[in-house]
Amino acid sequence: MLTAIVLIDTDPDKIPEVAAQVTNLKGVSEVYSVTGKADLVAMVRVRRHEELADAIADGISKVPGVARTETLIAFRTYSSVDLEQAFALGLDD
Description:
InterPro entries: Dimeric_a/b-barrel, Tscrpt_reg_AsnC/Lrp_C. It is built from 3 helices and 4 strands; from the N terminus they run E-H-E-E-H-E-H. By secondary structure, it is an alpha+beta fold.
């Protein structure tokens, strides 16, 4: 599984509409409205590298109201949630 974190700049008045459209794109698992340099953060999870282009360049970037994107590709996942789930399954035995 490939994961990309996409920072999205948009007109502040259009944040809810842009978020709703981005959420419906294939490969987008969730969208967050955030504080800071970006207006929205989209989590993209796909199986193949080519699908990143479909989801980001051909999808998110073309949503009306999206002014700019910056994409961060994840190398590894470090998550206490994943560890808790593993322990709950008895994998620590």
